[in-house]
Amino acid sequence: MPLQEPELGTSNLYILAAALALSLVPYTVVVMMPTNQRLLARAAQADDEAATPVEKEREMATTESGEDAEVRGLLGKWSRMNVVRGCLPLAATVVGLFATLF
Predict the structure, then answer these.
(1) Mind listing the pLDDT tens digit for each residue in 20-29?
(2) What pTM, to 2 d.p., does this model score?
């Protein structure tokens, strides 16, 4: 069977699949990086405040503050963004398979 040129619609689907897969990087840098930086800054601050691992563990077990609520909020936001980030390659796979099979 000789090779045939792909239809324009199929080519567009492959382009869409590639764009979805590659969009992972800008999404991470533009959307997720500010939250990542805030979480890293909070972790560094917590490390600086606790002189020893035992003190750090004791402090984490006994204190509940507004800062903890902020960190929990940031982690919740990060987890939702990470779900979107994980769906991008999944969507690219689905579109690529659709273009291949149909």
Answers:
(1) 999 999 999 9
(2) 0.72
